[in-house]
Amino acid sequence: GLERGAKNQFSTFSNFITTINQKKEGIGNRSSPTQLVIPNIKNVRDLPPICLDVRQKQRISIDTLPQELKAPVPHEPSLPIRTKTVKDFQDDVEKAKSSGDWRAVHDFYSTTFDSFLEINAAFKKDTDSPFNTIEDSGINAKFVNVVYDALLNTPQDVQKSVLKGIINGLLQEWKGPRTKDDLRAYCILLQNPQFSNTSTYVIYAHLLRQIAALTEADHHFLVHWSKKISQRRFKQLVDRLLQFISLRLFPAKPEEFPPMVKCTWWIPSATKVLALFSAANSLISPPIISYTDFYNSTLDHIDLMEEYHNWQCYGNSHRFSFCQYPFIISIAAKKVIIQRDSEQQMISIARQSLVDKVSRRQKPDMNMLFLNVKVRRTHLVSDSLDELARKKADLKKKLKVTFVGEAGLDMGGLTKEWFLLLIRQIFHPDYGMFTYHKDSHCHWFSSFKCDNYSEFRLVGALMGLAVYNSITLDIRFPPCCYKKLLSPPIVPCDHNTLVGICDVTLDDLFQIMPELAHGLSELLAYEGNVEEDFYSTFQVFQEEFGVIKSYNLKPNGDKIPVTNQNRKEYVQLYVDFLLNKSIYKQFAAFYYGFHSVCASYALLLLRPEEVEILVCGSPELDMSALQRSTQYEGYQKTDLTIRYFWDVVLGFSLDLQKKLLHFATGSDRVPVGGMADLNFKISKSETSTNWLPVAHTCFNQLCLPPYKNKKELKQKLIIGISNAEGFGLE
């Protein structure tokens, strides 16, 4: 960004320090903002290493702190009086641009950024007010934005004077805790656009280090102040930190930075500061930016399994791992971690089975290395549930499916079809386990009471098997389900601990039962007399097998009227009843089933939204992206048959496109990495053009005869993809 201002780039930090030291005139000249004393950089006190163990604290603890912290408030020094307004500054900049005389602007920048006190004097809304609350930082955001927007278009000496002042402030000897003015200065300095340039990274790193080392109480203030930053500037701050981490990991010009061994604290410091912005983002509903904007795709190219193992092994120690800050790891990278963790567990379980067999002097059998599921298509659900119930000890082995009476060998394709057909039948309304809500197009757990909830456990195990075996499912659960599935993410040792219970809101109910949620929101907004007009109590009714049953939301709820004063409590208890209490046994069984297969510390890395993507993939089909990533065998992409094929496919309805995807890959869902991850291949079939296309779902391969015209290709393709159940051997 600096190219827009001056023609010359900043020199290296070492040369910069040398230049400053050559210009200093002694301690007595501190009154001049452009002449400052720089202590030896080696004498700056080392800050403690940064480490946050996600097992102990998955998210930065914000809400656990009181609104006003009771720690002693340090004395705020008196601020210099600065009267320049936004208009005064803008007038100075315009005059400088027209006259070429930048002295007034230079004096403003060099004075303002000379110390933390001067920063507050310039940008604090009212220098006489303390602004010691989390709700108002006291920063004149408009003035800060105007000053920073103009900075990159000023001459080089003006920009250097700002960096000199920042160095001066960072090298100050701190005594006692930070004041709120100090926190305000940190908040303002973080927004400096100069830190997008790699030549300023050494200064930026020291700023990040000091912010990362602040107390949790100070972080609490910074988090709440940060959530007031505009969306555009908030995103710029996040992108700047991500770029800093990426370029420190993979520098374009390594000579620009100190050796990695001398600045191991750079990345931990930046990551912890990024965690503050992630925490601020999560406090707002809807969030300021998407959680995916915190992903750093550069991490996809490092040894993530080493990061994962370090995190597992060193736990609470001070050894840094990106897994301590899972918000920065992309869903694609998390999928790799989960897949490899699953593979290692599969190998370990299979090896143990082999050792046990040999130790008993029995002949090893290859089938013992797999979870073999043998089912009849006509009894798919009952056979599958029986097989999984009998083979609980084998759930962590590689899955292999056999359909009775069919010659297909499972290299992955049969497993995909088994999941697809099984899910379709289990979630059918006639089966009674799940209720389909037409308004929200999603399934939810039936609240009907029964004697045995083992089928819910087996459905949970089925979903766990899909994640464990990297299969995407066409399941339409609301986001709330995945939030409950991670409550907690690791199965508690104490079986009396409640599982699958999470904080739920009216927004969660809107995603399942929008009509009921709308009615409750109307109740909350009602301006009349709730008790007289609604005549409701803290008692709700549900129909179960044709019988109406009543439930009290609290003790003696049938005798407690809903009033204007207690209606919020009523709505919260009602939502909690519907999404937690009324289905507790069903969901607990489902929870234990899922975790019986997927029990792994890797789940600690996931957000509920990410679990949903791993389970369901993406329903969004981008056939143009599939066309770009398709490989060919026997064909060239310019061949007439291939051109006919894509003309036809791109013109298909969404339903036919899904059928094609299911025909060729065994699933109509898109995996986490997008269409490119399918490794889709079209091969030339040397059979007669009277034949239909054939697919090898194990390898995501479509075998296409060289049809002579587009009409024939379209006709044969539609017939093939519309009658695609069953497997055989060629």
Automatic annotation (TrEMBL):
<feature type="domain" description="HECT">
    <location>
        <begin position="391"/>
        <end position="730"/>
    </location>
</feature>
<comment type="function">
    <text>E3 ubiquitin-protein ligase which accepts ubiquitin from an E2 ubiquitin-conjugating enzyme in the form of a thioester and then directly transfers the ubiquitin to targeted substrates.</text>
</comment>
<protein>
    <recommendedName>
        <fullName>Probable E3 ubiquitin-protein ligase HECTD2</fullName>
        <ecNumber>2.3.2.26</ecNumber>
    </recommendedName>
</protein>
<feature type="active site" description="Glycyl thioester intermediate">
    <location>
        <position position="698"/>
    </location>
</feature>
<dbReference type="GO" id="GO:0016874">
    <property type="term" value="F:ligase activity"/>
</dbReference>
<keyword id="KW-0436">Ligase</keyword>
<keyword id="KW-0597">Phosphoprotein</keyword>
<keyword id="KW-0808">Transferase</keyword>
<dbReference type="InterPro" id="IPR000569">
    <property type="entry name" value="HECT_dom"/>
</dbReference>
<comment type="pathway">
    <text>Protein modification; protein ubiquitination.</text>
</comment>
<dbReference type="Pfam" id="PF00632">
    <property type="entry name" value="HECT"/>
</dbReference>
<keyword id="KW-0833">Ubl conjugation pathway</keyword>
<dbReference type="InterPro" id="IPR044611">
    <property type="entry name" value="E3A/B/C-like"/>
</dbReference>
<dbReference type="InterPro" id="IPR035983">
    <property type="entry name" value="Hect_E3_ubiquitin_ligase"/>
</dbReference>
<dbReference type="GO" id="GO:0000209">
    <property type="term" value="P:protein polyubiquitination"/>
</dbReference>
<dbReference type="GO" id="GO:0061630">
    <property type="term" value="F:ubiquitin protein ligase activity"/>
</dbReference>
